[in-house]
């Protein structure tokens, strides 16, 4: 994955990934989130607004699958795992670290009205939040522990498909594409 990430360079799209969860009614939900960083060899972090429905869905079923297409590298990664709950102290430190890394314009998203609610023309949408502003309570870090990774290289025919699973000690398995 690191090699594929390096091929993507600094393109913002290279950090976009799709996260699948299960809604309360049992249907599948998919959203695009921004990769925020690795926090170990088999865990990564994403940011979300805890007023969105995805956090309730993850609380009810912490299993998550991520699809991450890296177009320049011509690779698709499917990452399976689960949400890792952080203790209060580590959660606060992690939130502070990510908050400080965000640009003021990106921080503004957490000052907007709750996602998914009916649009209200009388409510403002701030353009930025300054560095010295406190972290909003709705700012949430989602840490995902990976249990399985699949890679599909889309270059040659036939495509190359590999899998690594935690329960197999991350041994590489070659699969049919």
Model description:
The protein is α+β, with helices and mostly antiparallel strands. The protein has a single domain, classed as Electron Transport, Fmn-binding Protein, Chain A (Pnp Oxidase, Chain A, Roll). It has 4 helices and 8 strands, in the order H-E-E-E-H-E-E-H-H-E-E-E. The chain has a 6-stranded antiparallel beta barrel. The chain is globular, with a radius of gyration of 18 Å. 17% of the residues are buried.
Strand order of the largest sheet: 1-2-3-6-5-4
Count every helix, treating DSSP H or I runs of 4 or more residues as helices: 4
Rg over alpha carbons: 18 Å
Total strands: the figure is 8
The helix content, as a percent range, equals 10-25%
Quaternary structure of the protein: single chain
Going by helix content, strand content and strand pairing, the class is: alpha+beta
CATH architecture term: Roll
CATH class: Mainly Beta
Mean pLDDT: 94
Distance between the termini: 18 Å
**CATH T-level fold name:** Pnp Oxidase, Chain A
Query: What is the molecular shape?
Result: globular
- Per DSSP, what share of the residues sits in E-state strands of 2 or more residues? 35-45%
Note the run of SSEs as H and E.
Answer: HEEEHEEHHEEE
How can the largest sheet be summarized?
6 strands, antiparallel, barrel
Protein topology:
Layout (H helix, E strand, L loop, with lengths): L1 H7 L7 E7 L5 E11 L4 E7 L3 H8 L2 E8 L4 E10 L3 H14 L2 H4 L31 E15 L6 E6 L6 E4 L2
Antiparallel strand pairs: 1-2, 1-4, 2-3, 3-6, 4-5, 5-6, 6-7, 7-8
């Amino acid at each position: 994955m690191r090699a594929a990430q390096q091929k993507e360079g600094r393109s913002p799209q290279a950090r976009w990934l799709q996260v699948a969860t299960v809604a309360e009614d049992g249907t599948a939900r998919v959203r695009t989130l921004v990769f925020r960083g690795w926090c170990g060899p088999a865990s990564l972090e994403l940011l979300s607004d805890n007023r969105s429905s995805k956090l309730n869905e993850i609380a009810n079923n912490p299993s998550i699958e991520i699809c991450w297409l890296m177009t320049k590298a011509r690779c698709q990664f499917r990452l399976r795992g689960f949400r890792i709950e952080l203790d209060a102290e580590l959660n606060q430190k992690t939130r502070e670290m990510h908050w400080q890394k965000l640009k003021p314009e990106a921080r503004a998203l957490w000052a907007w009205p709750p996602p998914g609610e009916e649009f209200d023309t009388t409510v403002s949408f701030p353009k930025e939040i300054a560095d010295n502003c406190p972290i909003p309570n709705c700012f949430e870090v989602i840490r995902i522990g990976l249990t399985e990774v699949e890679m599909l290289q889309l270059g040659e025919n036939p495509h190359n498909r590999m899998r690594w699973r935690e329960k197999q000690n991350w041994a590489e398995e070659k699969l049919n594409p």
